[in-house]
Amino acid sequence: MRCHAGPEGSKVRNSRARSGSPGACTMPEMPRIVPPIQESIVEAASHLRAGGVVAFATETVYGLGADTFNLNAIDRVYALKGRPFDNPLIAHVLDVAMAREILAESWDDRCSALATRFWPGPLTMIVPKRREVPDRATAGRATIAIRCPDHPAALQLLRALGSPISAPSANRSGQVSPTTAQHVADEFAEVEDLLILDGGPCVVGIESTVLDMTREPPEILRPGSITLDDIARVIGEARLREWHVQDASPGTSPRHYAPRAPLRLLNGHDLRNEIVTLRGRSCAVLAFPPLSRALRRRNELTLFTMPDDPVQYAARLYATLREADGAGVHAILIEAPPKDDERWTAVLDRLRRASARS
Prior knowledge:
This protein is α/β, with parallel strands linked by helices. Helices cover 31% and strands 17% of the residues. The protein has two domains: 27-248, DHBP synthase, CATH 3.90.870.10; 263-355, Rossmann fold (3-Layer(aba) Sandwich). The longest helix has 17 residues, at 310-326. The chain starts with a strand and ends with a helix.
């Protein structure tokens, strides 16, 4: 049995051009991963200004970004991801001033209170948009999803650009989100003009909470690390609504965040029975410490011991799914977290969608 305490560290590609013998053509290694230094930030901002696409780190997952006001660049993001055009993008902003003055048609006191408490951070707010915002960036909606990322590289890029960046997660549509620069490079290995701003591993590890401020009371359309209770303590009444259609919010399609190998979400007893049913075929297992210890002698398993803390679990989840998928196993089996603890709501949402049948 191969046993893992968690995902291996990512191996970053050389960001420099590969040169051959004198007189030979220089072949750039692309996508190109660059460090978050001033020179790279300026280059990335110039690339966005010219209509290019830049992948960049946030505290949640890596984003695949375009200038919100450049229609060709927005279309390129959709094309690279294979994302349906009716699935809106999240506009990332430097601060509240950028959100209010450039994107939002209306911004009430509750928005201000939430931004004061949670920005920069993993909270996306949906508000009415200004007419100047292209419909293409909002999938034709009269509203726009906005957040301020809590990552120095993302904020430096926004400051250098001086304009919002619309960015979904930097992966193919419906698949596992990336939490390292190398994940992005692996996902888009054939894309020759993609610049990836390396900000290290994402510390939150799952996508932001999406809160629709145009509903009364405001509704969480996608759960994240900021919980319903967190929001209610700031603005009073709010509610969590479970969505099973993609047009509600990014990340709400029935099947999402899915690895290539079939994934099953099971309680401990059913997971053991499923291993027996597989009759020795290779599988990866993500389990909490007690079950992981009980399974450690099973040679056919690639075993990942997952934290019993929801924050640590979320930070490790996507990288572990990618590593498990890369092992070429017949199936991925995951021990289900507790259902009656609000702290696990976001993780359970991702696991249920990842395990849904297409």
